[in-house]
Design a protein that fits this description.
7-stranded parallel sheet, 597 residues, disordered N terminus, alpha/beta, 24 helices
Length: 597
């Protein structure tokens, strides 16, 4: 609704992103919504399956931004995409929203939840490119399965344009296209062009391999500059291959994100991709390849602007394919290549990604995946190495994204049992030992997020900033402790309680508040409270359980149990704690009755 005829396509997308960012930030800043979820509903922004298209490219980046916000703030946001034929009732949709799914698509009368799956290797070995592990194909299979992009259907040589072509990944690809794909003409763009570090050496290597090379300084977010580059391609070697590998990083947690930081990342990624689409739409391209990032699909703490731009690329590939144009978005995982954006990650960032299950690709692995992904015939693939051991550990800890559940075996019961496990443990621990138990747990989690092998390295009195914490480390610690405690902890946790000792004291107080509460709840009571808290009141009423509970508790109409001082007109007036106490009272009453019979 924000789009105007005078807007450029990219300007509309950025305005929608700015609106979404403002809503996310306001939602997180308002303490009244601390236990609530905000649902973003879009229409035709993302594809839901191989045969599904994208109708609204401008709103697609919102999914990337919110996915990153979900990574930083689990349980606070949900994404729902509708289509023109959606006829699922509001009641059915609300029932699904009661689950732990964070992303949904409604198509006709179906509600779909996304899962990443390995693409099984086909007979020709081509489709394993979508696999989340190192592909196991021999060199002959790879050569046969990967089309030679440097030669047209008539056998004539052609040109490949690589944006970001002098960067680490662009240079790797340029050499690969010449050596393995028969490319004999290359146009490599970057902001500095021939003045970029290593550019002249790269050109010399490519010429020695038999290619002609043009190095061009070009701001690819500028449509006119990019048009001039495309127009300058030698007619003897027509442009047949476009690879968009340009990009930038400007990481920061969602609370620190600004429209300016979004624009800084969006321009070289998304703006440039749309310009490339428009400027080559009438050409006979054999390949249109977008270098995206798995962050757009999986979300990534501190990368909301980057994730948004990459989702735009992913949706653009689907948008092109629906229109009969070539298009594939390769949402890369972590690269080990020095000089790549991933290669410049700090030690703590790399440890965080590896702990999440993302392992770095070598240059050889990455190029092999490039060939397989190009030949697979899918609009979106994630060439990456995932450590399934790390994913299983996340599943046990209850922190595994629903999107990844198809890659490891972990039952829902096993995942659900982790939430609030600290409370259950403390319920069976003597009161004088509880402080030590919580301190040891927090110390262990602090050591883990900092990449230490042992909690012994952590001085419990030392400030977190002295230990090496940054905003992303603080977010990860908060999320891990929230999962273990079953308590929604504040985003400012590590700043409000800036040492291991202070934080553990706060956490103990949240789990075992003093004053009026029974500090020695039984394990069974903790389980009952957790179970009831997870059931919406409407569900109890629909199932007919609510009336039974009220009758057993003497609160049903005509029971006469309500006193003059404590009238109960409706269970809807009860808060959650009152309902829990009611149910526990029923349980005790049933137990007493059984003992007397």
């Amino acid at each position: 609704t924000l789009a105007e005829k005078s807007d450029t396509h990219a300007a509309t997308a950025r305005r929608l992103l700015e609106l979404a960012l403002s809503m996310v930030q306001q939602w997180l800043a308002d303490e009244r919504f601390g236990a609530s979820r905000l649902v973003f509903m879009t229409s035709g922004a993302v594809p839901a399956g191989a045969d599904d298209g994208v109708r609204d490219l401008a709103v697609a980046p919102v999914w990337g931004l919110v996915r990153s916000a979900q990574s930083e703030n689990p349980g606070r946001f949900v994404l729902v995409d509708l289509d023109d034929t959606s006829n699922v009732s509001l009641r059915d949709l609300l029932a699904v929203l009661d689950s732990d799914e964070s992303q949904l698509a409604v198509r006709a009368d179906r509600v779909l939840a996304p899962r990443l799956m390995r693409v099984e290797r086909q007979a020709n070995g081509a489709s394993e490119a979508a696999g989340m592990t190192h592909p196991k194909t021999d060199s002959e299979d790879t050569a046969r399965s990967a089309a030679k992009m440097g030669v047209s259907a008539t056998g004539a040589p052609s040109t490949a344009l690589i944006t970001g072509g002098t960067g680490a990944l662009g240079a790797l690809l340029a050499r690969h296209l010449v050596k393995e794909h028969g490319v004999r003409s290359l146009v490599l763009t970057s902001r500095q062009g021939p003045r970029a570090a290593g550019a002249e050496r790269l050109k010399a290597d490519l010429v020695e391999l038999g290619a002609q090379v043009m190095l061009v300084a070009c701001d690819v977010s500028d449509r006119e500059q990019l048009a001039q580059v495309i127009d300058s391609v030698d007619g003897e070697y027509p442009l047949r291959v476009v690879v968009h590998a340009a990009g930038a990083l400007d990481d920061g947690v969602i609370g620190s994100m600004t429209p300016e930081r979004i624009a800084h990342i969006f321009a070289p990624k998304a703006d440039a991709a749309w310009h490339l689409h428009e400027l080559t739409e009438g050409l006979d391209l054999s390949a249109f390849i977008l270098y995206s990032s798995s962050t757009g699909t999986l979300g990534g703490p501190g990368q909301s602007n980057y994730a948004a731009a990459n989702v735009y690329l992913d949706s653009l590939a689907a948008y092109r394919r629906e229109r009969g144009l070539p298009g594939v978005s390769m949402a890369w995982g972590l690269w080990a290549a020095t000089g790549s954006m991933a290669g410049e990650l700090s030690t703590s960032d790399r440890v965080r990604m590896e702990r999440s299950g993302m392992l770095a690709l070598s240059a050889e692995e990455g190029l092999r995946l490039f060939d397989l992904a190009q030949a697979a015939g899918e609009p979106l693939l994630i060439p990456a190495r995932l450590d399934t051991t790390g994913l299983r550990a996340q599943a046990r800890a209850g922190t595994l994204s629903p999107l990844l559940r198809g890659l490891v075996r972990a039952t829902a019961d096993r995942q659900a049992s982790t939430a609030g496990s600290l409370a259950r443990r403390l319920a069976g621990t003597p009161e004088e030992e509880r402080e030590r138990v919580v301190l040891e747990l927090v110390r262990r989690e602090v050591a883990a997020v900092l990449g230490h092998d042992s909690p012994d390295a952590i001085d419990v009195r030392r400030a977190f900033n002295e230990l090496g914490f940054d905003s992303l480390t603080a977010v990860e610690l908060r999320n891990r402790l929230s999962a273990l405690s079953g308590v929604q902890l504040p985003a400012t946790l590590a700043f409000d309680y800036p040492s291991t000792a202070e934080l553990s004291g706060f956490l103990l107080g949240q789990i075992e508040p003093q004053g009026g509460q029974r500090p020695d709840r039984s394990l069974e009571e903790v389980d009952i409270r957790g179970a009831i808290a997870s059931i919406p009141l409407a569900r109890l009423r629909e199932a007919g359980i609510m009336d039974t509970l009220l009758t057993l508790a003497g609160l049903a109409s005509g029971s006469g149990a309500a006193t003059e001082n404590e009238p109960v007109d409706s269970v809807d007036e009860m808060d959650l704690e009152s309902l829990v106490e009611l149910t526990l009272g029923v349980d005790e009453a049933l137990g007493d009755s059984a003992g007397r019979s």
